[in-house]
């Protein structure tokens, strides 16, 4: 298995081929196991845990009272346990005969088997019960534990490939029923199986008796009990089953995988089961807080094992590598608190995510080289240590620091692999106005939009300043035009070339009357991730600080668990930084002591609640109380500050990329804060001037503005609401020339068209696209004077966009696909298989073909899914069928004229059918990469068959009907009549 995964890791569809190999192998294997009445309890990569229950068949109503349960007439009954071990032994021997050295189809690789058998009493555990973010159904894990598994852990190492080894306990039951193999010299108490003692027992008789008395099908769940089964099935898989689209649950995905090994817990002790339950629940909580998935939990020869995956549907984020490492830090605390030893391995890469097994027994799993690597890293990690691979390091955000360790050799890898140990980055001590009188924005230290450190956006404050210069320097961009009107001054690049010093000197400019910066007010900025919200805010704050003498106060939140505490502490700390800026010597450098001095006496009761958060920046507990206390204090401090200076209050909420109940709960908290502070803004606008207060401008930044919120209504009424959409083609050209630092006329036309089609005007996507193209397709020629002479584009039409896995544009597109219902997602994936237009019957051919007992309701569901995608502007309606015909003429092709095309569309049964097409280049590339090659072939094949049937079958059926109506006289009768 290890050799196979290493070889297939080099193939573009290696994980898919691995899945096919395993499916082809597991199908006969599971059939054999089932025929001996075995049950597959767990899949764990290349291993299966199989359970043969000891049942007294003589008590079964199916028992014939003639042939004993072991199947040999005339021999006495062995008893339930001996019969169970006999069936397991016979199954093992037959598996070796039929499947050992099974050819995988990959040259030089064959599956070899070794099997260990133990017996005894087991405990069947149902553990977990926490509810994942994507559903309201608690998630449980079902597993077995006990002496048999402990026996197996010792026995397995004594069996070589092609052998079955029995523990001493199991051997006692079947020593007179089988022929022993070679002796185990080092451990003579263990025994190898050679073959059955066929003078007593044979495969067919054992198998027949096992199936004859099998009553498992009588106990299977019914449809009315789906709510019970659901707790053991991942929510995304259950939805696919409900919608009849299970085939599309198999995908190629970029995921981050965590393997955890736990030691120090005896499951069979009197308190063991309770401790296991406590451990699993706590691990689930830590995993679900970061919106990950617990894919497997098992107890085997390696101890307690967890497999956690970040990036499985529908919990997909662009910052999954960061989330996985942060979750590990939380789980290290759990293991330490429970006095257990945990080791953690984290890897990131492209893997097969789908069902594994056979039609009779399958499990949703993750397969591939990335998964194996996480297991190897886990084995090499020290107690409570976290080891990461290079890809995880490269794709993690600036919240983490990685220390390179010495490369290690691992099983299945010819060369050594790089290993990195993560450390949480210390939170910046200063936010807002610093002691050096600069402005430090919160997003310099916290990620926004799930960006990764690989993006230029997230590297440092200098690159963020360059983004502001380039984007806000696009003179015709509606965003900067609107902001410049409110500020009363045009955008100046010099303000963002270096770190600006904020002084207490009088203002050098004035905002126009009616502007929030002149009279106070609220500005709301919304728009999709990457549209330039942060760049606009940064310009507003810098301009207001340097020109209008308005100082910043910040409060940002998301997308990490417990970020309401961060919002609370930022509001307090930045208020204090403004006061220190105005009067440097008046306050203590200790925030809590400064707060005690500055806050009004009536707030003394709430100050102790803020002390832990101000002293410990990593605190995440008690967020609600801390935030409420912080709001009270902030609303008291701001009027004090407004007596001395104008304030720009910036509130930002970052969703991450998933919207589930937990995230929506954070969203509600944020908008509650906005509502409270809106009351303060409105009060200051009415009474502040009479009290001698300066203007208070509040800027609210969020991907989606909450409809009906008082701040949003305020901004819309006063025309200070800015919703950002994509740049126009004119803007894109100006932005590209600024980013490439070349004149506009030097940007090649083919490059303009490609970037416009892929990015749809999203500024971040434009930057990422150019960065990726510069690595492979764009060559910038520079002259002797260091001036760009020209730009050359090569093979830009052949670029594989889906390989840009580390970019926000690809990550956000995957998240968009995950927001769809299962049937809509299946339709989208099928649509990527057609290079041109397609129809509803083309898609129905793969899911609900009219030739396969489909109903009108099936077509209606499919139509509604297509209609929803059209409304979401993911696919487009084609107003007129663009039917083309290609005729091979050497290497040339010839298309029909428009008139011929229209005539054929009219004559065709599809002429009256609405045509659709997937024209979004980015969605086509990303969605198509998630579809397996076998699925693509199936969709195209079924559509072609459906078209051929629709075109040819009705005519042939008519001919057949005519023939049946005509009287048929057999030939020999006809000849006889002629002779008469």
From TrEMBL:
InterPro entries recorded: A/G_cyclase (IPR001054), Nucleotide_cyclase (IPR029787)
Source lineage: Eukaryota, Sar, Alveolata, Dinophyceae, Peridiniales
TM annotation in the entry: none
Superkingdom of origin organism: Eukaryota
Annotated region described as Disordered, given as residue ranges: 886-909
Species of provenance: Zooxanthella nutricula
Regions of compositional bias (Low complexity) in chain numbering: 894-903
A Pfam family it matches: Guanylate_cyc
Protein name, entry field: Guanylate cyclase domain-containing protein
One record GO biological process: intracellular signal transduction
Location of the Guanylate cyclase domain: 256-378
